[in-house]
Amino acid sequence: MVDHFYSLESMSTTEIMNLITMSHELRYKTCTIQTPLVAANLFFEPSTRTKNSFLMAEKKLGMETIDFSPETSSMKKGETLYDTVKTFEAIGANALVIRHEADDWLEELEEKINVPIINAGAGKAEHPTQCLLDAATIHREFGDFKGLKVVIAGDIKHSRVAHSNAALLSRLGAKVYLSGAPSYKDEDMQFPFISMDEAVEIADVLMLLRIQHERHTDATNEIEDYHDNYGLTVEREKRMKTGSIILHPAPINRGVEIASSLVESEKSRIFDQMTNGVYVRMAVLTKKLLQWGIIHENQINECITTGGQPITTLYCAD
Ligand code: CP
């Protein structure tokens, strides 16, 4: 069976690096699919960046797109997730981009859905395209991951970004640390847990996360004076290393995990992450459509806009 795109865990490092390299190349080249294809974007949870980044990626590839809103769908009449997703396959979608609040929503779909499913966020478990775009942003900045000190700081326990990123960046050779309020610590994650004051001193990459209020189930998760005790304040940022960068998957709660004035500061790559996300999603969509045999190499128009080299990673074996 050909794989859906749910987690980076099952992918080889070569496959992951090929997607990152391809995303860098797509920045300078257009790559459109000749065959008429339709992507359905099924977001059962709110999204600004991921949904619109996928829509932009699909449009840049020349795909048609179908939007979906659970509030105005027949889920309101009791239709299940499976029947909803199967409907989009039945009406002819060639790829399904799905975000859902459950950690394991793929389980009931993977054997029975016969078009590629791409995970746009699964509960607090996985957000693989966010993880890839974060890695692509780090790779563009430093050229490598080996030896980099990456601190992921914030609501670790409830964050799918923290779980996906810690695993991948560690696999790629970075030294991963976690930071945040003690009640946001995830005891299952075996990485050093440090204070924000230590984090700013050592980090090459400081990845901040918002507090995931929507996933909290008890009041002990509400922290007083969060910004002063656990956030990136203006004073702490001054102690960051030369050449270090600040990442945040967003949405941002300005003045909570990060001082508002630092969101677009010299060290911040937060909006670059969003730009990189479009190219990462183009790479993932193209690779999955090729792997599933929905398109073939000769159906891709590769038009070099700047640079001069063809896309080397498009057709290479993973
Ligand atoms: N980073 C991210 O997933 O943002 P959205 O929730 O807006 O998609």
Give an overview of the whole structure.
With 318 residues, the chain is α/β, with parallel strands linked by helices. It starts with 12 loop residues before the first helix and ends in a 14-residue tail after the last strand. The protein has helices at 13-26, 49-60, 81-90, 128-142, 160-171, 196-202, 226-230, 234-237, 270-291; strands at residues 29-33, 38-43, 64-68, 95-100, 117-122, 149-153, 175-179, 193-194, 205-208, 245-247, 300-304. The protein is built from 9 helices and 11 strands. The strands form 3 sheets. A 5-stranded parallel β-sheet has the order 8-7-6-9-10. The protein has a 4-stranded parallel β-sheet with strand order 3-2-4-5, with helices on both faces. A two-stranded antiparallel ribbon has the order 1-11. Bound molecules: phosphoric acid mono(formamide)ester. Phosphoric acid mono(formamide)ester (CP) is lined by residues 47-50, 121, 130, 249-251. Phosphoric acid mono(formamide)ester is lined by residues 47-50, 121, 130, 249-251.
